[in-house]
Design goal:
262 residues, alpha/beta, Rossmann fold, 2 domains, 7-stranded mixed sheet, 10 helices, elongated, disordered N terminus
């Protein structure tokens, strides 16, 4: 299943990829003991080390694992993980929806799985206009957007943001001081700040790099690093927080994120 995802270039869908890796771990656990599973987990992390959602999903999968009934425990954790992914999407959308009661024109940039789930619902509301730039499909969740979105050329980004009420940005990874997003995000934030537009990053606690391991090589091609202090806040399943508060809230809410084993 993992190879199928790689061949179809769906690496940007981090939750789908995390599900595939979790499935593989559970299948392997049918024939191996706990020590071999931990070795397999580390091997997978080395293969997909730049995908923080996969890393955190495996932390969740393995945390509190006891030596007996390993396969059953892993499958139970996997099912809970998948339910968490869905629940997080719903909670993020709830907070975004609350923000749209006063912000009717929304500019979005860097669509991640959480943001695409919310946009799919928001675009059905005729009172809300969702605007998105035309970006390279290879690193956008392009297939999720569909109709109901107003697309603008890169040259029109300045005016589109100026006329918008709120900016939503999909995160790929969040650390204590920085966030990794799609290319063009810094420009988007600079324009938004110039016109005093509220700008929010959308993520869940599974996007948190708890040990601040962001390296420059990770965002050379399709991604770039933004300073968390340059945005209004982070919208997650935990609510709407200033960036530094989100970091501590996520660690408090998910103690297994602190595990340095990975």
């Amino acid at each position: 299943m993992i190879q199928h995802l790689v061949m179809n270039k769906k690496l940007h869908d981090k939750e789908l990829f995390a599900k595939a890796v979790s499935h593989s771990i559970c299948e392997i656990s049918q024939e191996k003991d706990s020590s071999e599973i931990l070795f397999t987990k580390r091997a997978m992390i080395n293969q997909f080390k730049d995908n923080v959602v996969v890393k955190n999903s495996l932390k969740y999968l393995i945390h509190n694992l006891k030596k007996t009934n390993t396969h059953r425990q892993l499958n139970d954790n996997k099912n809970q993980l998948f339910l968490l992914f869905l629940d997080n999407k719903r909670k993020v959308h709830k907070h975004i929806k609350h923000k749209t009661t006063t912000n009717k024109k929304i500019y979005v940039h860097g669509i991640n799985t959480l943001l695409s789930y919310s946009l799919d619902k928001l675009k059905k509301n005729k009172n809300i206009e969702v605007i998105a730039p035309k970006l390279t499909p290879i690193y956008e969740n392009w297939q999720y957007l569909g109709e109901g979105i107003k697309y603008v050329e890169d040259l029109d980004m300045y005016y589109a943001i100026k006329e918008s009420n709120m900016i939503l940005i999909g995160a790929d990874k969040i650390s204590k001081n920085h966030t990794i997003c799609k290319k063009g995000t810094n420009m988007c934030i600079e324009i938004a700040n110039k016109f005093h537009k509220p700008t929010y990053v959308c993520a869940s606690s599974f996007y948190l790099d708890a040990h601040n391991a962001i390296k420059d090589k990770e965002f050379e091609k399709h991604y770039e690093k933004i300073k968390n202090k340059s945005i209004s806040g982070i919208i997650s399943e935990l609510g709407i927080h200033q960036s530094h508060h989100f970091y501590y809230e996520a660690l408090h809410y998910n103690s297994w994120l602190k595990n340095k084993d990975l």
